[in-house]
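Note to self: user wants both folds in one dump. Writing first protein now.
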Amino acid sequence: MMVKYISFMIILGVSLLFTSCVYHFDLDEAEGIPKLVVYSYPGSGDTTVVRFSRSLPVTGKGEIVSGLTGTNVRLEVNGTPVGLLWTDKALPGVPAKSYYTVQRYKEGDRIRLTASAEGLETVSSVTTIPAPFPLNSVHMERKPSDPGTLQFQINFTDKASTVNYYAVTVKERAKYWRNGDSRVYYDEEYTAYMDWNDEPLLKVSAGLDEILIGDYTYYEQLYIWSDEKIQGKNYTLRLNKTYISDYETSIQGEVYTNRKQYKVCLYSLSEEFYHYLKSMNEQVNNKLGESELAPVRPTYTNVENGFGLVGGCRMMQTEWMDGVKE
């Protein structure tokens, strides 16, 4: 559904579409040589969006502008061309100035994208659509040993015959009711920061950075892992956050009830998508690089002769769940 694609785009954030400015360049190669930048996440919904921009060389001036027009683009699924449409205006699930197609995929579909634009070298990229996330159940409870902690328990069974990559993020929504009125007065939604101290799959050693700087941070609160340690096994992933019960608050003399709700979003990632997100995490956690005590780490790309990412992805999400009562 296109609604699922919207949720996916919100989770990853607009920043995934505008990261060309953070690429690590060889100055001798990059000076004065703009490249075509492409981002597309086939499989994340039934609508595939392809967006282009022109990279800004290290010595160049100006701003990165996404939504490059005049691009010749070809999308193939298992060698068969798929028609792409262009839109100047934003559509449901499709940003303005984008190519798109409504296309359903199945596990193992091979996606190849090639594109060219005047004055830029032709680019190409290949990815494979992964299997859906192998979810069994999602359970939420107050941690028995620590009632002040709300724990999300995500049970799944990894597929033994393939190498798999996964991600999870948790959306949090605060809803407010005016006392005596059953209608929701106000609500806000955001991506929750989760504590993974109880989850060995998410504990990452950041080397010297970890020793000198501190805790590891996941980019955009999107928690990624591979099945290297659990291949073919049934496993329960555990994420924690502070427990917050319903409470009342007074605003300008009116009393409101606040209630928390949560939604768990689960992803199966292609190898390319996983390595891209892993490289973003390495950049976020490269504090020594920011202090010029270590090299700046490059952003992964699977776009030949260009930059960006064409990454297969499958997403599913739970319904909104009320917080656990006291």
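First done. Writing the second protein, which came from a different request thread.
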Amino acid sequence: KGGLKNPRILEIGSGSLGIAPYLKMPVTGVDQDFSGPTFPLLKKVVGKATAVPFPDKSFDFVIMVDVLEHLPPKERPKAIEEVLRCAQREVFIAVPCGKLAWRQDQELDRYFRQVFGKPFPFLAEHLKYGLPEKEAITAIIKTEAQDLNLRVEIKTFGNINLAFRKFLMKGWMTKNKLVDFIFRKFFLLFIPIFRLINFEPTYRQLFFIKIKGSQTAK
């Protein structure tokens, strides 16, 4: 929250809930589909990650979680440009990265087909477009920041160990009602512990980007 009393927060690809229920404060969400459960503190705005309908520096914090992997590689730089353009203070990007993560998505798609007899819809665009490399995303952030005349500080962290993610995902891909209850309800009690299971190799990379000012500023 950055110590601000009433921070302006934008989430790209929020869906109908996004992070607002966790922050418990107003969030503007941009997405193309808001079907599903809703949350009163989320202000829904129809738009695309590559064409965010807000002026420059409209928000203190801009968040984009698990969006880039659903875009063709040629559109990812534009989406990163948009989150940087709309932010005044900080940007947070989370995205699955690397060949090991992509191979796991392939494995999980095969497993889902075996259990349910159809592809796993959530992974379709992952497999179609591929997952970016951490180094590629870092390079794009630097390039787009330079084009926007921004000085930025980038910090990266791995998120969710691959083996642990496979365990969770296969637990969710079940027709057994008891197993489904354990993985979807009971395990929620252990989320604080799960957040510690971020040792390499990880499925996702987190990019924390602090905007330090313009490149021309002294």
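Dump finished. Worth passing along: The chain has a mean pLDDT of 91.
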